[in-house]
Amino acid sequence: MDRLLFDSPVTVRIGSESTQREVTTVKGAYEALVDWPHAKRSGPLYREAVETVSAALAGTRTREAAKRAFVAAADEIGIRV
Fold it and tell me: What is the pTM of this model?
């Protein structure tokens, strides 16, 4: 299994039309964080998610840690489906 593939997808609503996005990898989580609503980027869980996901891409954190941080940030602003 790819070391950056999540064990199960995380679905979030991002964008002006609240488009559903299925995030299945650490890279996908990073891309979703880049597209995160600008007004919601100031929370501590968003910053932690960016740091943790970036570290997982660099190989210094696990995909599980990246997924946990991503899910926590999504839950914080209510965009996880």
Answer: 0.93
